[in-house]
Amino acid sequence: MIECKNLTKIYVNGDVETKALNAVSFRIEKGEFVSIIGPSGSGKSTLMHILGALEVPTSGTYFLDGKEISKYDDDELSMLRQQKIGFVFQAFNLLPRTTVLRNVMLPLLYTDTTKEEREERARECLKYAGLEESKFQNLSNQLSGGQIQRVAIARALINNPAIILADEPTGNLDTKTSHIVMQAFQALHKQGHTIILITHEPEIAEYAERIISVRDGMIESDHKKETR
């Protein structure tokens, strides 16, 4: 599904060049659950942005489903993100004065679907993410951190993406809630979703079946393990 060959990313600020990624290569197969772990400044967030088609590498190639991402124009990249990639962020990025159900429906607003179809799909995704139906009409700012993150997961699922990219999804959560959210990701993985998790927490990375460790813009280790 995903193949990266010698990905390098250099940021230029005036006369200063910063190499965020340095010749990174790996493959991720359909249905894998992969954690990408590293300290702050290791390059993991840059890598996530490239995998999510939010940034392009300075050099190297990124193939998704056999097609090189650099061959896409801006409209095609936007369509790719909408149809194939679901994003879950640390900051949740939900509208605070909007109901849970409408927050999840939003990505479908400009698609060829009726309001009834959007609502039905949103309800399915919320149940899939493990949120109680009694919370669907709550405003998102009336929920706990763990419940909000489940809403964010449901929103990422709304377009039935092939890949779920989660960037530090437990960063704002306490330990107990973090484990509940990670169990939700494990359940999604068992149901066939490809999940790529960005984290700096070793304990959270352990929920994945494969851990890629990055440091100073390079892959330090890449190994598979048994999930919990």
CATH topology: Rossmann fold
- End-to-end distance: 24 Å
Shape: globular
| Radius of gyration over C-alpha positions, nearest whole angstrom | 18 Å
How many domain regions?
1
Look at the structure and give the mean pLDDT.
90
Please identify the structural class as seen in this structure. alpha/beta
CATH architecture: 3-Layer(aba) Sandwich
Residue windows where pLDDT falls under 50 for at least 5 positions: none
How would a textbook summarize the main sheet? 6 strands, mixed
CATH superfamily: P-loop containing nucleotide triphosphate hydrolases
Give the count of helical stretches: 7
Description:
The chain has 228 residues and is an alpha/beta fold. It has a single domain, classed as P-loop containing nucleotide triphosphate hydrolases (Rossmann fold), CATH 3.40.50. The protein contains seven helices and ten strands. A six-stranded mixed beta sheet has the order 6-7-8-3-9-10, with helices on both faces. It has a four-stranded antiparallel beta sheet with strand order 2-1-4-5, with helices on one face. α6 (175-190) links the parallel β7 and β8 (194-199). α5 (145-157) runs parallel beside α6 (175-190). The protein starts with a strand and ends with a strand. The model has no long low-confidence stretch (mean pLDDT 90).
Outline of the structure:
Helix content is 32%, strand content 29%. The protein is built from seven helices and ten strands.
Task: Describe this protein with a few key phrases.
228 residues, alpha/beta, Rossmann fold, four-stranded antiparallel beta sheet, 10 strands, globular
